[in-house]
Amino acid sequence: MPALSYYCNVDNTAAVILHRKGYRLWNDLEMKAICAEKNGWDFAADDAVQLLGLISIFESQQPAEYREYWWKIDDPWLLDELPDFSPSYVPVANQSAFPANS
């Protein structure tokens, strides 16, 4: 089992992180989306985890101004190259440095 995977109980944590980063959050009932804004840059997604992902793209790209497809990265194109199996690793939950809850 992964150390973290998406489930709706992660949404509030994502919203808190966005709030701590200084984003204003609201629900857009017409779009049926959760939205965020900071310094005029606005974002919308189906849930707070998706919203956090979109804002991570924004923060990684750091656009100086709005232009079409400012977020797009095509090179390298990784999605077609992903293996169909996981690499060999020891999950953090199985590592001795993290004893199981008693």
What does this structure look like?
With 102 residues, this protein is an alpha+beta fold. It has one domain (8-94). It contains 2 helices and 3 strands. A hairpin with a 4-residue loop joins strand 1 and strand 2 (33-38). The longest helix is centred in the middle third of the chain and has 14 residues, at 48-61.
Helix proportion: 10-25%
Number of β-strand runs: 3
| Major sheet: arrangement of strands | 1-2-3
Low-confidence stretches: none
Strand % is 15-25%
Radius of gyration using CA atoms only: 17 Å
Q: Sheet with the most strands?
A: 3 strands, antiparallel
The SSE order reads HEEEH
Straight-line N-to-C gap: 18 Å
- Tell me the overall shape: globular
What number of structural domains do the residues give?
1
Number of helical segments with 4 or more residues: 2
**Average pLDDT, all residues:** 92
Structural class: alpha+beta
Show the helix and strand layout.
Elements: H1 11-20, E1 24-28, E2 33-38, E3 41-45, H2 48-61
Antiparallel strand pairs: 1-2, 2-3
What keyword list fits this structure?
alpha+beta; 3-stranded antiparallel sheet; 2 helices
What is shown here, in short?
The chain contains two helices and three strands. It is of the alpha+beta class.
